[in-house]
Amino acid sequence: MTREYLKKASLTPASDASEVHATVKSILADIEAGRDDKAREYAAKFDRYEGNVLMTQDEIDAACDLVPEKLKADIRFAHDNVRRFAELQKGTTTDVEMEITPGFVAGQKVIPVDAAGCYVPGGRYSHIASAIMTVTTASVAGCKSITACSPPRPGVGVAPAIVYAAHICGAHNILAMGGVQGVAAMTYGLFGLPRANILVGPGNQFVAEAKRILFGRVGIDMIAGPTDSLILADKDADAHIVATDLVSQAEHGYNSPVWLVTDDRDLAVKVMDMVPGLIDDLPELNRENAFAAWRDYAEVIVCKDREDMAACSDEYAPEHLTVQAADLDWWLKKLTCYGSLFLGEETTVSYGDKATGTNHVLPTSGAASYTGGLSVHKYMKIVTWQRATRDGSKAVAEATARISRLEGMEGHARAADVRLAKYFPGENFDLSADG
Length: 435
Ligand SMILES: NC(=O)C1=CN([C@@H]2O[C@H](COP(=O)(O)OP(=O)(O)OC[C@H]3O[C@@H](n4cnc5c(N)ncnc54)[C@H](O)[C@@H]3O)[C@@H](O)[C@H]2O)C=CC1
Ligand SMILES: O=C(O)[C@@H](O)CS(=O)(=O)O
Ligand SMILES: [Zn+2]
Fold this sequence. Notes:
The protein is of the alpha/beta class.
């Protein structure tokens, strides 16, 4: 049996890519030329915001005062989990050194980048959790300057809970600016900010494209665009939970794909019957997003067995991958392409999105085939160093001279020759290409 598509997407995240590219490229060029004033113009155009951009301490304090105590406690709970997980990950990459050959030592040193620019999305929803995920990891990495930027609401500014989260997680600057203009402000060093060395954080297709275009002059974490999610479910999965979980991630936006992959046709049919009712039951904005995402981007695929399900999932390389099937250890071992994996019904993508401690800034649109999500490591440069004694350099110099000469790189070879001549006068070396 080949794979059977009970539902096939009519659109993919690449559908409007060239239009988005042209729009973003021209906004970036405009802002690079027109600096702060041009960025303000775009904020007025896209977000109807004309207020202060770089938040003052008084503005930050006033926003924090507006956040209810219970929500503050929840934000601190999530921050603590993300911080401790980031610290654990940081400990896995450390400075090391070894004596490569006698007298010749080579080492690795881990250095955090100076300035991190953290994008916190806020067009449709107030992504408090994204502020926690990005700022906390930058802070644990040891970045000296951390800027959080997020779209302001007209007449209000950045959502107070986002300001509170960015502040307690360690942001040094908070910028009331979203979209391409926010990304540009951090990259070009507008509003008195230092130029970012790395841009991190998720966002819509405009934000993701801005990061993609700017990559090279600034580092980026990855392409973390519109959310996507895949659920692997077998015959024993609870159809209501599977359907609820699919809808939970389709609400992100009209362009958020969700996919169900199963080897049980009956389960697939049950889930497809349930989804429209669950979408109807959502508040208006969420309903509109999920309705369009389910109609245009969702897929339901019946595979012949679990081997085929795993292969199918790896082809999608989803941002979020959930397994609601027997033998979770088998799946953990088998699956290779995902941003974050949720094993069993007892956990769910929403937990990881908001509070578990694993990062929710994750690769989308298949990028999980080559990268994982945001972690403390994305801010850390792993560099190398070396030093040698004169005796220790001898064997390396001889090999270098001969290899360089064989390559035709006489200048390189002579850098070795002069050292051999200086350190070992009177000794003869055969440093010819065929020596
Ligand atoms: N991959 C990941 O790890 C995560 C991804 N996300 C994704 O982040 C996204 C958030 O999107 P939004 O709510 O829209 O917030 P957003 O903050 O990413 O985008 C809002 C900004 O988009 C700009 N914009 C809107 N229309 C535009 C246009 N026509 N031309 C140029 N700029 C325009 C505006 O300047 C506005 O400030 C969703 O797609 C969600 O799925 C969210 C969290 C995590
Ligand atoms: O793409 C993601 O990771 C989002 O699901 C995270 S959140 O739900 O917007 O917090
Ligand atoms: Zn989510």
